[in-house]
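Minutes, structural biology subgroup

Action item carried over from last meeting: produce the structure token record for GGDEF domain-containing protein (Parazoarcus communis). EB confirmed the sequence was re-checked against the source entry. Recorded below for completeness.
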Amino acid sequence: MKGPPLRRSRSTQVLLRFPIIFSAYWLAWQAASLFEVYPNVSAFYASAGLTVCFTMAHGLIGVPALYLSIVAVRILDLPAPGFSAIVLLDPIREICVYGLVGAHLRQYWTRPNYRFSLPIAVRVIYSAFLASLSSALLATRTPALGSTPAELLGTTVLSFWGGDFAGVMITVPAFMILYRIFSPPLNGGSMNLIDALRTARALSLVIYPLLGLSIALFSVALPALLEVDTRIAILILFPVVLAGLSRGTIVGFLVATVSCATLLVAGSALGFNINEPIEIQLILALAVALGLMAGASHDDKEHAWTLATFDAVTGLPNRYMVMDRLEDALTSARRTKTTVAVMYIDLDHFKEVNDTLGHHAGDNLLKQAGERIRNAVRRSDTVARIGGDEFVVVLSSVDSIEGADHVARNVLSALEQPFSLGARMVTISASIGVAVHSITSQTTDDVLRQADHAMYQAKSGGRNRIYHSSTPCAGTAFVLGELRSSTSN
Ligand SMILES: Nc1nc2c(ncn2[C@@H]2O[C@H](COP(=O)(O)OP(=O)(O)OP(=O)(O)O)[C@@H](O)[C@H]2O)c(=O)[nH]1
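Output recorded by EB:
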């Protein structure tokens, strides 16, 4: 497994982001100005969209770079360039309103096991309103804008309710609903987390390109069907951002390429109105820039999440993740009146492997042991390494105590087989404690503690055996024979 990359300092990150944001915003400005009804209006909304996307992906840390980029592009592109109050102040207002929207959405988006949350939506809208009001008050202090304070306050508040507020009201629910549909929570199903991740990735390779393709076809066909000059190709940026944010850079690029290629090929092959090549180029460049930004942010998030929830030696979920999975399993067991069992597995005399063959061989053995335990249980069960030579298995649905014991015996015999560590074969054993959840008031901690307690009894009972704690303190031993941990050539 790859180690964590070297992190750059925060100030360097912000500086590095400036050229990327500048390019993305300049492209957004150019692309949006092709769809204008009133001069520059679409371009302003493009900057609002970029602000939401950026702050959602990277947080408020990039705001200085975002602000500088917007100001720089406006100075270069507005008909009367220069450091006018509107060039300097309007981005502040937009970043306040839309930056807060993005920052709040980030709280939702960065959760590994996110759930739809109405309070977040309410907080987003409330804080966007406060930001808009503050920026209106700020505008009244700016004589350069040339209106009376009351007029300015009125105009800014009205513009918020007419424009920004509508934008916020559409952006927040649309994002939450679509993100929910296309990126279902990974702990929701009965699958193991790793399998769930694999399935989500495989699905996203189909769903997002299909979404980009449909929007591209729709945007090519619409002007021909309606016989109007409505250009909506910019909509393909939406699946690109969603794909980048939820599945990473490669899927983001893939969706950008599929959508833009469809625009080009479908436009000429079907004889529909195809936009000017410059528009396609802008859309393509913008799609790629957004795919890169959103995807990089997803990759960062996934890396942080992997570090926080998976064990680096075995690649299995860690203590944090297994507790989360156990909580889910108990909740569902209470609802469906089924039984959950927890196995606490501790390898016997593992220290000897480290001492005789070294830590590298020890790591190798832990990895192989993890794989064997995984292969001995069902796909829907969770296997985790929670520290040292300790593993926990959550059997999400067992028929009876005997069923759990049967699985524990399978695990024990899988671990008995010799391990190949380089040129050496090593034989070890394990002590297993099993606890079965049956009482409705039992918490995750209770069940885990009981399994741990039973495992300690198995250790003190002579190791290489299974105890289960049908009663909290007394275990029942299933002695499978005494095997000393041994190493041989
Ligand atoms: N190779 C390796 N060893 C580890 C790792 N984490 C902990 N250990 C070692 O695992 C050993 C755990 O030993 P213990 O469980 O205390 O003792 P044991 O030798 O297994 O003996 P019993 O559990 O009493 O049968 C310690 O020597 C730790 O240093 C790891 O990530 N890699």
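Discussion: The chain is about 65% helix and 10% strand.
Next step: EB to file the record with the rest of the batch.
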